[in-house]
Structure prediction request, 274 residues.
Amino acid sequence: MATKRLYDWGVLAISMLAGLVVIFPLIYCIGVSLMSPSDLGSYPPRLFPSALFLDNYKTVFTSTPIFTFMWNSFLIAVVGTIGRLITSSLAAYAFAFMEFRWKKGWFLFILGTMMIPGDMLIITNYITVAQMGLINTYGGVMIVMLVAAVFMFMLRQHFMTVPRDYRDAALVDGCGDMRFFAQILLPMSVPVLSSITITSFIGLWNTYLWPLLVTNSEQMRTVQVGITMLQFPEGMVYGPIMAGVTVILIPSVLVFVFFQKQLVFGVTSGGLKG
Prediction:
């Protein structure tokens, strides 16, 4: 009994330590965002401000069109997530329930694309988008975000847990594939779809390199790119930068806090079964 209690306390201590390590950068970011220049220049470095200094946040909202940046990021994240849900679910349905030539080969090919780092394709994608005349447009930013092999794999694994008898019975009753897919299968897959929605939204909200390459005007910049406008010619001013980072973290943190149960359940049910 004593050994088990000691083990439980050990697991709790390690978990708390790991949680502290993960959350420390966020705490430090918020602390720096509220520091005055004198606090930032003090030695030894401070973790918390001596007094609240809100001018850093004022600088963020007056020096940059932060709301335009946030709207661009929100629009791209929402449209990209919807596109991924549609393409991933349809492809997963085909691989889970339908039979066609070279099915296993195509599935392995798509899985193989997950092993290719996205940065390897970024120049090719940029050239393609430029030839299509989509530079500095929403379409140019979104076009590469509408598919995600990993989400197709998650959904396919989940669909494989659904008995094929359900589809057979639906077809016998006159229910076509699309109706079975939309009215029966998708409602049964809400936890996995929720997980994909959350993961995709946060990932697209935080994307940086691709929007940096394909946008060149202030009105098209996403929030991750636009926040670099807080780097002033006289040098790095960490207070306003950290204030900007804190502001753009709010949507991601809120999404995770309110939907963390769906995220964990969706990953475990969709990624580990089948």
